[in-house]
Every structure is written in structure tokens, then in C-alpha cells.
Amino acid sequence: MSGGHTRDARMAAPDGRGADPRRIAALGTAVLEANWRTTHTVPAPGLYPHQWSWDSSFIAVGLRRVSPRRAGQEMDALFAGQWDDGRLPQIVFDPHRDQDYAPGASFWQSTSIPGAPRHAETAGLVQPPNHAWAVWKIHQADPAESRRRSFLERSYPKLVRWHGYLTGRRDRRGSGLACIVHPWESGTDNSPLWDDVMARIPDDCRTPLNRPDLQHADAGERPSQKEYGKYFWMAERYRDHSCDDEDRDYPFLMEDPLFNTLLAVSELALADIAAELGLPAGVHRERAQRTAEALEQLYVPELGCYSARDAITGAVVRKATVNGLMPLLLPGQAHADELIATLNGPRFLGGGA
Amino acid sequence: MTVITVQEQHLPGASLEEKFDHALEWGFGGIELRSAGNLEFEARLPELRRARAAGVVMPTACVEMSHFIGAFDDELRKDAVVQLKSQLSVMAEIGGRGVMTPASYGMFSRRLPPFVPPRTEEQDTAVLVEALAHLGGHAASEGVELYLEPLNRYEDHMVNRLADGVRLLKFAGQDAVKLAPDTYHMNIEESDPAEALQEAADYIGHVQASDSNRLEPGAGHIDWALFGATLKSIGYQGTVALESRLSGPAAEVLPRVPSLLGRYL
């Protein structure tokens, strides 16, 4: 698309600074439109050629400024991949692109897994629950269009079932926090939070590792073959247990502060959605409050931020990461001052990076 | 903010000045003229000069003819070129941007009997490139532009999608000839209207807006938010002209259009 490249070159400032906001919006619109695939948006045409769960919510939040209709369609496409147990899958696959990403549809064989959708191929893992948050923002961008499409009416029950899955089957400790079963479920795949638990994960997966990602990115920018061996080992085990969350000895169960903060934020959005639909909203505010209170188990005073807890050993990881700052998104946050101090401190913004 | 114009036949008033007053009142920024054959547009010059002097904004003209540059008949084709040359000069004189034309309209459709045109695609291309090259040179010398409008498959067999138009423009190699996408035709022909506009961005000189059912924007199901965001994204600098049928009396339905499109442009 040579015309597009010419335009890109004209519009971008050499170092990105001082660029006209309208030009940035123009370029952003062009990227969103270039990555639209009839019903959804791909995060990257080569490297990520399917629909990713939490990516689509973020994409839809931006897309609502371009086309609220498309933003709604984006969420509809993801919801069409919902499982019977309520989970929204990490990936909804484009069957024509299965050579370009692994583990793909042929790995998961989801249509053979009880409870998975019959008419879509999906992964069995999930991603952080930013969906209700996105749905409410999309509605607000154009309430008339949203009502015309019955967007809230159709989305609300699906979101309720999604949150029900997370607070039910994924609360493996009964702590009031949802567990992730794979680094990919955190959205922060390579976070130092997972280093300790990953050290005890075997890397001898059975699936041959073809690494289609290396066609689209430099090896230096991608996980190592050994790391991939562990990712696939876990995915194989989870898949081979039908993704049923009943595998007693599954070795990776982490309570992530980012994941659970978004759950609480989305629960608050569900309250707004319910109120808009004339349904009881109080139950959602109570659930959000319970999740926010449970998050306190993850606060680490010495670090001045939250962290992840290994739900198997009970140990809280002693590392300061961006995941641990996310509770700032919650209204009336108990440690807001400490979080802001940490954010501005030498570990983060004050670090002179 | 992009200027939204409305075609003159929709506006009440005995003169262009009166029509313009109504257009402004309804939220439009100008009038798109209709340029008829038989050198009738040139014959309107006194009227057009007067309107221009009175401040009437007339950026573009859209042909109102019975035969076009892609006509099968040699004489009709030549006459269409003669008419457009004259119309381009008229627009130059009144300070306009240009004139828009389809390759042809209502002459032939591959989807309707007799299905097979009397001329090959190569011959179609040759005829059109010749006309565009000739008119492009004339437009450039007058400081105006010619806009080629793709039509849906039922109204023309030669230029249906923006990509078809871009292909012809590349052959003709004339900077003063550009594309004029019309949202109604795009809704029928393009897989993704937004992507089509992005791909053709460098060639777009004028835009016409009409809803999916050929009624005024807002009366159908076109995604106007997407349309506006895409025009902004490609840095479109021209005007948007309303060419459509109306879902009700003009005074009732037309004033809604600038506020609808203006939200997004």
C-alpha cells in the first residue's frame, strides 16, 4: 500500500514528539482501519492475525472514536466465542491464518472440548477482564447507536456469565481473587512476577515448536525456545484436562493484581450497565467492593505497591511491577498515596529511564 | 471543518442567491451545481457570475447529461468531451474547484440484459483514458479539476469501485483528474468502504454523500461515524456534496443532514 506509506512518512514527526494530535489521530484511524477483518480487528496483520480478548477491548475503546458501530461489532465477535462456563477465550481464531500463529486452532481443537463453542475455534485460556469496562465506554460514545443495536441488552448477560466464571471456578484458593493458569492470561506475558513459578515448570512439551512468530519479529524480541517449551507444556496440560480447572496438580496458579483490578473495574461498569437497563445495580457494586477488599491480600508495604501471589505456595512475589500499580484504577483506593509515590519514585517514573 | 454542499435542485428559491440563503439556513456551506449538455451550463454564465459576486459558494458541478465520456457511440462520446471542456472552463471562471462525471450512466450494465457489452474492456479503457487525458490537460490549464465518479454495477459497467477509477487515473497520468467517491455506490460495490477510501486516498478530489438507499444521509444504514473518521484520517481537503433522493419535504429532512455529518467531519 505505497500510498499509505507515503502518507505515514509525511505525517509522523521524526522522533514522535511535537506531532500534531490530529495527525496522530489520523494515523491511529488508518491503523485501526487497516487491521479490521470484517467483524473484528487483528492486533497485528502478521504476528497476531486472530482476535485477542483483552486487545479487542482496548481496540474497541479506541475504535469507538472512529465508529461506535464497529466498536460494538468488535465486542460482539469476541462474545460469539464465549464458552458454556462463561469464559471469554484468549483468542478467537481465523481458520485461514492457522499457519501464522502457534498454538493455534489445530493445537487447541476447541470444538472437541466439552463446553467450548461449536461454531468458532478458540483457545482455552482467558485474558484480563476489561470487557465490561469497554462495553460501557462504547455505549457512552453513542447511546443511540448502542440502543439501535441492543448492545447493552445482548452484552450484559454474557458479561455476567464471564465474571461468574472468574469469581467461581477461577477462585482456586477461595480467597476472593481470580487465578490465572498461564502467563499469557495476564496480558503481561513476560512480567518478572511469573519468573519464580516458571522456574519449576517443565519445558519438555510434546508439540513441535515451529515458531511462526519468528517470521514476523526478531528472535531478540520474542521468548526463547526454552520459554516456549514451558508455555506449550502448560497449554498442553490445560488442554488435555479439557480446560476444566479441576486439575489438582496443575503447577501454575497466580493471583495477579492487574487481572483482579480490572475485574473490579469491570464489575463497576456492570453496575452502570445494569442501571442503564433498569436492572439491579447494587449487587455489582457489592461484588466490586469484595474484589477490591480481597486485593488487599496482595499489597506489599515494603514495595509500596501490590504484587502477585502464588496460589499454590501462598507466597507473595516480592517484586514491584506495573501490574502492582493498577489498583490505582479503583475509586477510594486504600493505598492511593503510596501507589502514587511508588509510581513517581525511582522504580518507575522517577528512575530516569 | 469540511464544507457540506447540497445540489441546487433540492433548494427552494427563484435564484441561486435565494437557494444559497436556504442552504445556509439549513446548515450547508454551499451549492453543488448541475451542469447540463448542449452548452447550457456555459449559457448560465451571467447567472453564475452574478451569484458568485453575491457571495454564493459553488465549489463543484455535477453533470446532468444524457451521454458521457464512455459512450459507445463515437459522436456522443466526442460531444461529452466538448461539454465537459466547456463546463470546466465555466467552473474556472466562477472560482470553483471542478466538475464531476461518471464514465457513463444508464448506458450499460453487465448485471442486466443483454449482459455482454458491444465493446471490450480494453476498448473501454482506451476510450476513457483518451477522454481523461484530454480533459485533464484542459482542466490543468484552467486551474480546476475533473472528478471521475465510480457508479454501482447496475448504472455502469466500466468504473464501479474506487480501485477501478484509480487504475484509469494512473493510465491517464493527469494530476488534474481525480476520483469522486459516492457513499451510496461504495456501499454496494466496496467490501470495506473505509479501506477503499484509505487505499485511494491520494486520488480523491471530491466526495458525494448519500445513504444506502439513495436517500439523504441518516435515512439509511451507512456508518457515518466511520465515513467522517476516514475522511479526516486521509486528510481530505475537499467538500462533501449531497446527491440523493429525499425521504420527505426538503425543508423538513435536509436541515438534519449537516448536523449529522458535521458530528463526524
TrEMBL record, chain B:
Listed PANTHER family: 3-DEHYDRO-D-GULOSIDE 4-EPIMERASE-RELATED, ISOMERASE
InterPro entries named among the record's database cross-references: Sugar_Epim/Isomerase, Xyl_isomerase-like_sf, Xyl_isomerase-like_TIM-brl
Domain Xylose isomerase-like TIM barrel residues, every copy: 20-246
Cited SUPFAM superfamilies: Xylose isomerase-like (SSF51658)
UniProt keyword Cell division, yes or no: no
Biological source species: Arthrobacter nitrophenolicus
Protein name, as recorded: Xylose isomerase-like TIM barrel domain-containing protein
Keyword tags: Carbohydrate metabolism, Isomerase
Lineage, broadest ranks: Bacteria, Bacillati, Actinomycetota, Actinomycetes, Micrococcales
